[in-house]
Amino acid sequence: MFEYIGRTVGNYRLLRGLGQGGFADVYLGEHLHLGTYAAIKILHTRLANDAVTQFRTEARTVAQLRHPNIVRILDFGIEQGALFW
């Protein structure tokens, strides 16, 4: 279930769901000021602290990678109790 559709997370308005998994949901987000689009991954809030640590580690790792087949991390944060990148 995509519970964040229509909400704002960071500088992005979440327009629609793109995919779901056991760890997180992915949304299409529109940047509020630039009008650009990005995939926004939001960790499920029901997960334990070890999943939060894993999510942060994943974001840091992916942010360091540079390859045409790997998505770039544009932002990372906590908004309304939800971790996103």
From TrEMBL:
One of its GO terms (molecular function) is ATP binding. PROSITE patterns: PROTEIN_KINASE_ATP, PROTEIN_KINASE_DOM. Pfam families: Pkinase. InterPro entries: Kinase-like_dom_sf (IPR011009), Prot_kinase_dom (IPR000719), Protein_kinase_ATP_BS (IPR017441). Gene3D superfamilies: Phosphorylase Kinase, domain 1. Keywords: ATP-binding, Kinase, Nucleotide-binding, Transferase. ATP binds at K41. It is an enzyme of class 2 (transferase). Its EC number is 2.7.11.1. Residues 12-85 form the Protein kinase domain. This is non-specific serine/threonine protein kinase.
